Amino acid sequence: MIARVLLRIVIVATAAWAGLALWVQRPLASVGTLSLIFLTALLAIAALVCVRQRPRVALILYAIGTLSVCVWWWTIVPTNNRDWAPDVARQTQGVVDGDRVTLTNVRNFDWKSDTDFTPRWETRQYDLTKLRSTDMIVSYWGMSAIAHTLVSFGFEGGEQVVFSVEIRRERHESFSELGGFFKQFELSVVAADERDIVRVRTNVRDEDDYLFRVNLSPEARRSLFLAYIEQANALPVTPRFYNTVTANCTTIIYHMARRIVDGLPWDYRLLASGYLPEYLFDLGAFSGASTIEEYRARGRITDRARATTPSDDFSKAIRQGVPGIPAGG
Question: DSSP string spanning 250-275?
Answer without folding.
Answer: HHHHHHHHTTTSTTPPP-GGGTSGGG
